[in-house]
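task queued by scheduler; priority normal; single chain, no ligands, no partner chains; default sampling; output format set to structure tokens
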Amino acid sequence: MISVGIIGYGSFGSFLTRKLSGHVQLKVVDPSQDIPVKIKGSLEQVCKCDYVVLAVPISSYDSILTEIKSFLRADSVIVDISSVKMTPNLKLEELLPGCRKVVMHPLFGPQSAEESLSGHVVVMCPEVSDVGAYRAVKSITQNLGLKVIEKSAVEHDKEMALAQGLTFYLARALLRCGVHNIELQTPSFKKLLDLAELESHHSEDLFKTIQVGNPFTAEVRQKFIDVATELNSELT
């Protein structure tokens, strides 16, 4: 059985641990979280695993990658699962040059895939991943019932600037508008409420990663603001 070390036991790290339990040997480290004794390990123990998953915000990559450099095995594989792909890949290239890595992004989380992983989508980026490790992780991913879509890191970030960047931005705006505070609700309005409710479960780190870490998101946000401003002017 392969060994997987997970750095980070937040919302997604703990979710990933639950889903991998029984399939792999697990070691998890996170000094800020209460981790079950059975899977809790030191940073060095986690880094000695076959695969080391980074379940931390990209704002922590600089410090984490620098810290783990001396602990990693020569054949260990770093697995990047962040919500953006260009920025973390550049950090990996800069701080861990020559490391074996697999760059991917699960398009789901605890709110959508707690009951089952089957049919959910994972984006994988072969052009910036180690060939052998990529094939192995892709096989594991598919065996878990997940659908793999292959994209370059640039293609991923461009598309996710819309799919996640704009969506999370709108949802955050809806929350700040207090959309839940009314009694009369149409079916279409309830969809907006669902969107806002989903955003309420996302961490501030995730929101900032998607809005700031993706180099294409700011342009998407601005285009929406421009269109909304133009539409508003047509009504006055």
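post-processing summary
- The chain has a mean pLDDT of 95.
- The domain at 3-151 is CATH 3.40.50.720 (Rossmann fold).
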